[in-house]
Each structure stands twice: as structure tokens, then as C-alpha cells.
Amino acid sequence: MPFMVILSAVGFSVSFFTSKVVDATTSAAISTFTIAIIGNLYSRITHNLGYVAVLGATIMLVPGSLGVKGILAAMSDDSQQGTWLPFQMIVIAMSLAVGLFIGSLLVYPMGKKRTSMMMF
């Protein structure tokens, strides 16, 4: 539990500071990259699964306001903004997946030898 809170705080702070400099998709990728690096290093050092902590920290990065804005735009007269909702959700999901994949690839470049790698 303490590692989950620490990893979520690290992911949120990286997301907060990078979103001021770059756009939302790049910020999400950088944040999940940081989360994956720290979670996989924790898993490698302690031989415990880092999956739960990484999952909790990744859920903190998913923008809930994106869905609310998209639904409000779809219900209002601004129908063009409502049509961009699925595209924005797919792009952010892909940037989260890319950040997690690259972070996992850097810590385990050849995969794990004896156990299955329980990570995204």
C-alpha cells in the first residue's frame, strides 16, 4: 500500500509538471514511462509484483474530465467537439500504453527468464 501511494504521487507530479510544458498525450506518455520504470525496478529489486502499484498509478493518470467534456459537447449544440471524444480517448490510451511498454522494455530488455512478467 505505501508503494502504491508513492508511485501514484510520483506519476501525478510528473504529469502535473509536464502538462505545463507539453500537450496531454505526451505528458501521459512521459508519466506512464516514469511509473513503469519505477514499478519494474521495484519488481526487479524486491522480487514482488509491481503490477498492482503500476495499475493504481496508471488509473490516476486517466483523464476523467475528457469523458465529461465529450458527453457535454455531444449533448450540446457543439456536435463537432463531441465527435472528437472517441479519437481523443484512443490517442490518450495509446500514449499510456506506449509509455508503459517502453518503461518495461528498458528494465527488462530480454524479458524475464524464469517467471512470467506480470506487467502491462
Give short descriptive properties of this protein.
120 residues; mainly alpha; 6 helices; 76% helix
Brief sketch in words of this structure:
With 120 residues, the chain is mostly helical. It is built from six helices and no strands. It has helices spanning 2-18, 24-46, 51-61, 64-75, 79-83, 85-107.
Shape: elongated
Estimate the strand proportion.
under 5%
**Percentage of residues assigned to helices:** over 70%
Mean of pLDDT = 78
Distance between the termini: 19 Å
Structural class: mainly alpha
Radius of gyration: 16 Å
- The count of β-strands is 0
Q: What summary fits the major beta sheet? A: none
Total DSSP helices: 6
What's the order of the H and E elements?
HHHHHH
As residue ranges, the low-confidence spans are: none
Task: Characterize the structure shown.
With 120 residues, the chain is mainly α. The protein is 76% helix and 0% strand. Helix 2 runs antiparallel to helix 3 (51-61). It is elongated, with a radius of gyration of 16 Å. Residues 3-105 form the Threonine/Serine exporter ThrE domain. Pfam families: ThrE_2. Keywords: Membrane, Transmembrane, Transmembrane helix.
